[in-house]
Each structure stands twice: as C-alpha cells, then as structure tokens.
C-alpha cells in the first residue's frame, strides 16, 4: 500500500536541544566529521488504495495542523512512496 | 472529587460567598495534577467541577483550569493531541468570546494553550535536556490578569516547578509585543531553569482571561505541604484571584 511521507524539522532559527546533545555524543564514538546535528521527525501515512490529489491535499493539511507546530517547526517534505 | 482533605488539616477559613463560583478542571488521558488543581480550587473557597476531555459541553462553569501532567504521553509534541479534544473547542470558543471565560493552563496545560493558539509561542525541551523538579521563585510581573489580581505587582512567590519541555520560545517580534503589552505575567527569579526566552515563566492573552505558566501554583496551597519558603501557600492567590473576579463580576 502506498504511503505518504511527511518530514518535519525544527525551524532553522530555533536551537534544537536534542540535536545539540547528539552532536556532543558523536565525537565520543569517534565520529569527528560532523559540526552540527538537527533532529526532526518523519511520519508515514499509509493509504488504502490510490493516493489521489484530494488525499495528498489532506496529508498536507494534516502536516500543517497536527503533525507540525508552525511556531517551532517547518514541514520540509511531503511525498508519496509506493510500497 | 469529594475527598478533602487527603492530607493536612481542614482547610483554612474561606469566604463563603466564593463557594458559588464553579471552576472546571479538565482531565485528559495522562493528566496528573487534576486532583491537586481541584483541591486548590476548594481550598481557595470555590467549587471544583470535574470535566472530561471528551465532553462536548462546558456546562455552567465560571472558569477552567487545564492542569499539568503528560496528556497523551507528550506524544507528537506536548499538548499537541489534547489540543484537538472535543472539550478544547468549547474552551477555545468560550475564552475568545465576549464572556471571556477565565482559563488557566499549568505546565502541560500551558503547552495545550500554546498548541491551541490561545497563547503565543511554544515550549521545547529544557536547554539542559533534563527533567527538573524544584521550588522556583517567580516574580509577578502583571497583577491585572484574571488569575493574578490577589498578588502585588512585583511580588515574588515560590511554587514547585517540574517539567522536561519547559523552555518557552517565541520569535523576537512576539516577545517584544508580549513585553510591550504587559503580557509577561511571570518571570523566573534567581535562575532560569530551562532556557526560556527572557526568563518568561508565564504569559497571558491580550484580555488577561487566559493565563499559562510552567510552574505549579496548585502544589503550593496548603501550609506545611508546599515549598518551605514563606508559608508554602504562595500558589493560592491564583485561585482566590479568579474566584473574587467571578464573584465580584457578573455573577
């Protein structure tokens, strides 16, 4: 069944405390090539049947209203992944 | 919600005329502090009314407290799923209506109010990433709101603080507007426990009927069971403020 993938990231101007903790942990494991980490969220919405324009529009609306908080986050990607 | 007292002695003498004021306390799945909030209402002299998130009517309550806890396990974002509960639609409408329903959001309740857009900004994880529980000094920056009129402007109070996602953030323009309009109601004193912008612990809407804060006044309402500083009852003023407002107003 096809899925609609929604990616949400903290807004660039907002400090991401979790990303900061992760970037601090990386060099302790020998991963020294990374200067910053930002942690986001990936949602997979499963669709029974075909992904119509209407369903894709619903996914975009859900992404803006429930899946993300526009005060602190941006929806950076909404795409259909055929299973 | 009839058991009183669970701990401590009988409540201090209250003003009987406040007893007619009904304050609803909302319970969501995962709410923790609804009973303490209801108890605070009663200790302040009011009548506490249990409300369920799935209710579709507010009934005849004169004010609403959205208590702390971990509604829906803080899944997605703290308060994000609760914000769409049926009762929240009623509360949002009533808070924005001419009747200006007084609404207090404490901790997770504050997060629900920002997710509801009743209050601007948002909360993210504490800057130090740890859950923190401590007695916290706050300065009452605005005593003109429905929930702070029994305090003096500039008064410092001590109430418990306990959260993980307590860092208040908003863009600079919003913060400047909040400051200019006197809508920063509480500020952390001595130490900023979570990295909140401009030491903000609590804010209000423009009308002053909706107030949200991260610390917990409902845990500081009874002598001997609150923070050790002062009498441990610094939080009681939230509840007496709104009760006096209700009784002194239209009711």
UniProtKB/TrEMBL annotation, chain A:
<keyword id="KW-0436">Ligase</keyword>
<dbReference type="GO" id="GO:0005524">
    <property type="term" value="F:ATP binding"/>
</dbReference>
<keyword id="KW-0547">Nucleotide-binding</keyword>
<comment type="pathway">
    <text>Purine metabolism; IMP biosynthesis via de novo pathway; 5-amino-1-(5-phospho-D-ribosyl)imidazole from N(2)-formyl-N(1)-(5-phospho-D-ribosyl)glycinamide: step 1/2.</text>
</comment>
<dbReference type="GO" id="GO:0004642">
    <property type="term" value="F:phosphoribosylformylglycinamidine synthase activity"/>
</dbReference>
<dbReference type="GO" id="GO:0006189">
    <property type="term" value="P:'de novo' IMP biosynthetic process"/>
</dbReference>
<dbReference type="InterPro" id="IPR003850">
    <property type="entry name" value="PurS"/>
</dbReference>
<dbReference type="GO" id="GO:0005737">
    <property type="term" value="C:cytoplasm"/>
</dbReference>
<comment type="subunit">
    <text>Part of the FGAM synthase complex composed of 1 PurL, 1 PurQ and 2 PurS subunits.</text>
</comment>
<keyword id="KW-0963">Cytoplasm</keyword>
<dbReference type="Pfam" id="PF02700">
    <property type="entry name" value="PurS"/>
</dbReference>
<protein>
    <recommendedName>
        <fullName>Phosphoribosylformylglycinamidine synthase subunit PurS</fullName>
        <ecNumber>6.3.5.3</ecNumber>
    </recommendedName>
</protein>
<keyword id="KW-0067">ATP-binding</keyword>
<dbReference type="InterPro" id="IPR036604">
    <property type="entry name" value="PurS-like_sf"/>
</dbReference>
<comment type="function">
    <text>Part of the phosphoribosylformylglycinamidine synthase complex involved in the purines biosynthetic pathway. Catalyzes the ATP-dependent conversion of formylglycinamide ribonucleotide (FGAR) and glutamine to yield formylglycinamidine ribonucleotide (FGAM) and glutamate. The FGAM synthase complex is composed of three subunits. PurQ produces an ammonia molecule by converting glutamine to glutamate. PurL transfers the ammonia molecule to FGAR to form FGAM in an ATP-dependent manner.</text>
</comment>
<keyword id="KW-0658">Purine biosynthesis</keyword>
<comment type="similarity">
    <text>Belongs to the PurS family.</text>
</comment>
């Amino acid at each position: 069944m096809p899925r609609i993938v929604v990616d949400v990231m903290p807004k660039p101007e907002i400090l991401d405390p979790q990303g900061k903790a992760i970037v601090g942990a990386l060099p302790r494991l020998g991963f020294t090539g990374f200067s910053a980490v930002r942690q986001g969220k990936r949602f997979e919405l499963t669709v029974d049947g075909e992904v119509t324009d209407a369903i894709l529009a619903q996914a975009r609306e859900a992404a803006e209203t429930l899946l993300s908080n526009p005060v602190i986050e941006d929806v950076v990607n909404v795409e259909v992944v055929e299973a | 919600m009839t058991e009183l007292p669970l701990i401590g002695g009988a409540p201090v003498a209250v003003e009987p005329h406040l007893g007619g004021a009904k304050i609803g306390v909302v319970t969501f799945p995962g709410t923790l502090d609804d009973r303490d909030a209801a108890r605070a209402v009663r200790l302040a002299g009011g009548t506490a009314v249990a409300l369920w998130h799935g209710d579709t009517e507010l009934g005849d309550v004169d004010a609403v407290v959205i208590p702390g806890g971990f509604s829906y396990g803080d899944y997605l974002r703290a308060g994000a799923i609760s914000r769409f509960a049926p009762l929240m639609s009623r509360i949002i409408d009533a808070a924005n209506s001419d009747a200006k329903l007084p609404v207090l959001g404490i901790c997770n309740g504050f997060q629900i109010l920002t997710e509801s857009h009743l209050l601007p900004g948002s909360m993210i994880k504490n800057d130090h990433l740890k859950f923190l529980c401590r007695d916290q000094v706050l300065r009452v920056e605005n005593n003109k709101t429905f929930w702070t009129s029994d305090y003096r402007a500039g008064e410092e109070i001590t109430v418990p603080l306990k959260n993980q996602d307590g860092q208040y953030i908003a863009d600079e323009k919003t913060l400047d507007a909040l400051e200019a309009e006197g809508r920063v109601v509480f500020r952390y004193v001595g130490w900023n426990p979570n990295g909140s912008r401009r030491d903000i612990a609590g804010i209000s809407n423009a009308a002053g009927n909706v107030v949200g804060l991260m610390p917990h006044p409902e845990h500081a309402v009874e002598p001997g069971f609150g923070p050790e500083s002062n009498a441990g009852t610094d939080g009681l003023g939230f509840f007496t403020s709104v009760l006096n407002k209700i009784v002194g107003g239209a009711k």
